[in-house]
Amino acid sequence: MRRSFKYLLRPTCKQAVALAACLEEHRQLYNAALEHRRIAYRRAGVTVRYGDQSAELKHIRSDDPEGQGRWSFSSQQATLRRLDKAYRAFFARVRAGRTPGFPRFRGRGRFDSVEWPTDGDGCRWNSQPDHPTATFVRFQGVGHVRVHRHRAVEGHVKTVSVKREGSRWYVVLSCDDVPARPLPATGAAAGIDMGVASFLTTSDGDHVVNRRHLVTSADRLAEVQRDLARRQQGSGRHRRTVARIAALHAKVRRRRLDGAHKAALTLVRAYDVIVHEDLRITAMTRSAAGTIERPGRNVGAKSGLNRSILDAGWGVFLRILTDKAESAGRTLISVNPSGTSRMCAHCGHSAKKNRPTQAEFACTACGHIAHADVNAAINILRAGLALRTVVNAA
Length: 394
Prior knowledge:
The chain is α+β, with helices and mostly antiparallel strands. The protein is built from eleven helices and 14 strands.
């Protein structure tokens, strides 16, 4: 299986400047290639493709030896393929009848990674293998950069990427042939109900607290954003304040990611079969503002709910849970959540009045009383086991 490994880089000041220059040159190459495609089609009706632009790289590098010529040829090809991928995605959305979103130029804050398609071609992971204490990765034009390797790399390194997040630099390795790590069977199965009051609730009655990381940092963020409003745009203070805001959001993101990893690992260790809701998070967090002719209702409340859903990080958690379940040899099943919160797990009666409050479930038919999230998780588990039976019988 393929897995990605992400490590913090420890560049020197000179190396950090070189990495920033590498990122900037690749951004300019991306924007120039986009402009080339736009002008060629607008003025001559000619469609420029990746192969055409890749063939011009040799001349671009020879004309700019101190700029584009410093960096790896293969990494520049990867940047051009990135643009080509954006075009193909645009036309796929057009054919599907969705809102297209034409590829746009990348500003300095919207281009934060460069990829080397092959380890050894313009970059080298573990470039000093005989070093007794540290690990290094070498990038063409930058040099040997120290890596904070907090865990071992598994499998065969396929591609290497460098990524900037705020003031930090990371190297991301995409590895093939990563061995699975199956866990011993437990014989247990669980359904999980995702929520805002509790991050998740299992059919066994266990609750995982929603840490609300963004809410916890809201006062500090508001204070720094007020400082930003008083800064003159383009000034040094303005740039430093923007960096402080980015650092706060990055800290929230890391905390959310850490909580998702811990919750997913707990579930994978405890259960052989895990059933979860097939959530359409994009649809659930769509704005209720409506249009000028038909304005939405309860827009403020819906906005607050959307913020709470996104702060919980359900999508990140489910993606991590999927990866960990695959590696551990666990079975992960997704089911349609429709009706699971209103149906009685005891008698099967479904009605809106069965859930008088957010946390309480009281069946109007049989009188069964339970925590609403636990009742929903039991229904989710049963639906998942029934679906598995049907699939195995087919």
